[in-house]
Amino acid sequence: MSRLEWLDRIVIGRRRRHRFSDVDGRVLDVACGTGTNFRYLPETVELVGIDISPEMLSNAEEQLADLGRDGTLLEMDAQDLAFPDDSFDAVISALSTCTFPDPVAALREMDRVCKPAGTIRLIEHGRSDVRPIARFQEWRADPHYAKSGCRWTQEPSEIVDEAGLSIEETDTGLFGMITTFEITPGGGDDR
Ligand SMILES: C[S@@+](CC[C@H](N)C(=O)[O-])C[C@H]1O[C@@H](n2cnc3c(N)ncnc32)[C@H](O)[C@@H]1O
Question: What is the model's pTM?
Answer without folding.
Answer: 0.96
